[in-house]
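Supplementary notes for students who missed Thursday's class. We covered one full example, reproduced here. Read the sequence, then the structure, then the short commentary at the end.
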Amino acid sequence: MQQTSAYEDFPGERPVSLQEKFDRLLRWHLAAAIVHAAQAGVLFGLARTWNEIDQFWTQYKVWDKNVSPRVQSTVLFGAKIELFPPIFLAMAALDHACCAYLWVWSDYKLQTAKGTASLCWLEYAFSASLMNSNILQLCGNNDIVAHGLVWICTALCMVEGYWVEKLLEQGKVTEAKWHFLQGCIPFLAVWTVIFAYFFDNATDAPAFVYAIVVVLFLLESMFAVNMVVFIYSQRTPSDIYNYEWTKIVLSITAKASLAWIQFGGTRASSSSSS
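Structure (token representation):
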């Protein structure tokens, strides 16, 4: 019985060369898993020597009889901000390792060949939320309510990204465009909050915070640009490969940029102040 190729649904390209092209993504997933895991290990080891704890709190008004309302703050918990990067890097390493495993042992390769690599959106929902929360904290906000907003909106943005790919697979381009626009709303909400606190504290912010805000905003925006290009492409196998490859490269670049700019900046600021 003749074995059929997972890619023969796509016309216009030789199945052998097409399969070789998509199999490169397996090597990219493996490389990304190793790179992220190595960085997570190094940063986790370095963070253990860092004793500074950031307090996360919430604010609310307390109304007393015949007295003007007063603002009261309640500290909810403390966290080491330098543990955030190794955590989101470890999330990404686990995601890419799972992609590589499923690539070999299941139909995940076929999902990718159709432009619906759903597993990455689950990881993005958590890792990107933690990254944006990390950026907001660096901009001077430790209010748990604002961080909760950032987490929810970032996750909603990733859900819309998943539906864009799913609808494109089904040929529903118009619906996919609407879901893309819907995903832009929580994305802009997140960055409106980040920029509001950044500009409010810009005069006191160290240079590395400026770098993080600008670089990460541009890199996260490039995910949207990549998706727009994919939506308006013919979605040939080459288009799908380029789209998935760009997502992997942007993910590696964004996470590494935030992790190492923050690490270098916080250590430099600590050394200059001591």
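Commentary. Residues 1-13 have pLDDT under 50 and may be disordered. The first strand starts at residue 54 and ends at 62. If anything here is unclear, bring it to office hours.
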